Amino acid sequence: MRRKLNCLAAWKASELTLKExxxxxxxxxxxxxxxxxxxxxxxxxxxRLPADELVRRRLQSYAVIQALRNQIKAIAxxxxxxxxxxxxxxxxxxxxxxxxxxxTLSALSRLGITEGSCILERYIGGTALGSAYSSNTAxxxxxxxxxLVGMRQWSSAGVPIFSRETNERLGVLGLLLKxxxxxxxxxxLLQAISTALSQVVDVDRDKQMMAQIYxxxxxxIGAHVIHVGSTAEREILHEHHPTPLSPSLREEMANITxxxxxxxxxxxxxxxxxxxxVEELTGMNGEPFGHLGTFRDMTRxxxxxxxxxxxxxxxxxxxxxxxxxxxxxxxLTTARGFLQLFETRxxxxxxxxxxxxxxDELDRVTKLVNDFMGLARPDHSKRTIVDLTEVVRSSNQLxxxxxxxxxxxxxxxxDDEVYVWGDENQLKQVILNVxxxxxxxxxxxxxxVTVRLMAQEATVSLSxxxxxxxxxxxQLERVYEPFFTTKSTGTGMGMVVTKRIVTDxxxxxxxxxxxxQGTTVTILLKRAQPxxxxxxAQ
Length: 538
Ligand code: ADP
Ligand code: MG
Description:
single chain, alpha+beta, Beta-Lactamase, 4 domains, seven-stranded mixed β-sheet, five-stranded antiparallel β-sheet, 16 helices, disordered C terminus, binds adenosine-5'-diphosphate, binds magnesium ion
C-alpha cells in the first residue's frame, strides 16, 4: 500500500549547519536523500506492509518486541519527561513496533509513520533510524538533520541490533526525544538495550530450536504427554496428543499425572492399555515445576502379543497333530473292527447296546483324530492339479443323502472343468467340513443349502450358503479358534483345519453370517490350467 506524504512543502531541503559528531553520516544521508527524491522519485512516499504480513512479522519478532516494551519504562524514567517514543524496525526496515508518548505517536502517524511502514531513507527521508539502518552504526539526528520537516521538532537516535551468535542484522532500534537537542547518554543507553535485545533474540532462537526438537521427539515417541503445574489447582500447562482424545480420557490422564510420581506402569483407560509414567519437574535450584505424565497407547503391542500367543498355540497343535494323531488312528481302526466282529457273537440285547455305545464313542474319537490330522502340515509333494468340479460333485453325492434325510433342500450350481492346485483329499475335507456345518445349522423345514463353484480369470470361488441359524458376532469371531464349538457332539476343529488348508494353498476364506438368517462361506483359490499338468509330471 502506498500513500503520498501530505507535508510535501515541508520536505524541501533547507540549508543545514552540521557541527555535530555525526556530520559525515548525516551529510551522506542528505546526499542520498537529495539524489533519491530530487532526481528519482518526485516526492517521498510511504510504503506499508499489508496487515496480515505485519501480524506475521510481529509474531516472528515477538521476543524482541516484548523485551523492548519491558525496557521502555526504564528508558522513559532516565529521560526526565523528554521521552517521545521507542521504535523497532526489522532486518528489512519495516517498523514493527512504535511505543511511547501518545502525542508523539500521533504526530508520527500524521507524518505517515506507523507500525507497518518502512523507515528506509528512500521512503521517509533521513532519520536516525533509517541512517542507522543504512550505515550500520549508532547515530543521533538533531532537529534539522531530519530530512522531513515534520520530524524536526524532535531529536532521534538509532542503533542497529546484531545477533551475537550469527552476526546478522536483526533490525534497528530508534528513540525520539521531545526536544531538538540530543542527550549525550542516549547512545550508550540504546547500545546497552540493543545488546540485551540481541541476547533475547539468541535465547529465543535457542528456545525455538529446543521447542522444535521437543516437538519432533514428541511426535516420534507417539505418546500422550501432559504437564500439570505445581500450584494447588494443578492445572494443565502443556499437552501433546498424537491422536485426538475425548475430554474424559484427557481428564483421566491429567488426574493420574496429578497423583504424582509413578514408575512405568500399565494402566487401562477407557478399555485401552497404556504404559503410564509420571515424573516430577524441577528447576536448577530444585524449585518444583509440576509433573509430567506420558501415556503410551499399547493396543498395537497387545494385539501383536495376542497374535504371537495364537501362533504358538497353533504351532503346538500342529506338532501334536502330526506326531500323535496318526499313532492313535491306526489302533482305533483295529479296535473298531474287532468290536464289530464281536457284535455277531453277542447274544444278550443289553450287551449289544453296550457294544453299540462303545463303537459310537470310538467313532467320535476317530472323527476328532481325523479333524486333527488335517492340521498337520500338508506334504507339498502331494500337490497336483485337482479337478475341483469332480471333487465338489463327489462330495455332494455323499452330502445330498444326508440333506435329504434332514429335509433340507440341497442346491448346486457348478461350473465344469475347474482346476486348482492342491491335495484332493484335503480339498474334499474342506468341502465336507463347510457343507456339513451348513447342514447342521439348518433345523426347521424350508431350509436350503446352496453350493456354488465358479471359475473366474485367475481365481476359483467356492461358496456354501445356508439359510440356517447363523452365528452371533462372538461366535463369528471365535469360529477359527481350536475347540470352539456350539454343538454337543462337535469337535470345534472343522473350521480350524479348513482355514489351514485353504491358506496353505494360498487361498482365502471369508464368512458372512447373520444370526437367525444364515451363513455364507466363500473360499477363493488360485485357478490352475489343466495344461500345467504336464509340468507337474516332469
Ligand atoms: P464343529 O462343527 O465341530 O462345531 P467347526 O469348527 O466346524 O466345529 O465349527 C465351529 C463352530 O462354528 C460351530 O460349532 C458353529 O457354532 C459355528 N459354525 C460353523 N459353521 C456354521 C454355519 N454354517 N452356521 C452356523 N454356525 C456355524
Ligand atoms: Mg464342523
